[in-house]
Amino acid sequence: MIGWIIFAIIVVIFLFAGLRVIDQYEQGVIFTLGKYSGIKMPGLNYVFPIIQRMVRVDLRVRTLDIQKQQVMTKDNVPIDVNGVVFFKVHKVQDAIIKVQDYQYAIAQYSQTALRDVIGGMTLDTLLTERQHVGEEIQKIVDKETDQWGLDVQVIKLQDIEVPDDLKRIMSRQAAAEREKRANIIKSEGDRDAAKNLAAAAETMSKSNGAMQLRTLQTLDGLGPTASNTVVLALPVEVMQFFQNFSKK
Fold it and tell me: What domains does the chain contain, in order, with CATH numbers?
């Protein structure tokens, strides 16, 4: 009798030992006597102890850092750059069976792809088209890691560090470029102002009394300040009268 009780207890323990609860964001890869035998879906599942083994795989999007490394650009500028990879597992059996450690594998492959892509670009292209560079790296990594059951969502470049002496050169170049644009804008403004003044002078020369009216407007704009000194010249018509009189 006691033997049957002990046997029943062992059976109950054996049955409860095989119960597994898989979360909604997970799947379980089952190996029976070392061979792949199926996938367990979220919920309550049973795995035969000793005979079977289950490996849980997280299906959520994961973030993986690409360690900072020094890369030589196409124009021979040494830079330090790092990035971040967003990926998820879409085939759990491939991620477990075909690669030993898929997180380490994708990190190493991303570093290699980053070095290859940046090595074929100039520094100016890298600084102005960071998103495009990340997309190129993502295409390469996603194509190669698809056979591992991984789906690379996006790769972003985080920090791009250039040598200090090059930073100073770039700063002086940017300042010179800004000064150049300011001078161009000022010269264009002076040109437009000169055209407008010439057009206004031509218009006023054709209208009788326009110059006197402009003079009165200018005097009115000076205000009643005692420190202002106003010198009035003879009107244009008076000057023309004396010129015509002297010719007679």
Answer: 2-58 (no CATH), 62-167 (3.30.479.30)
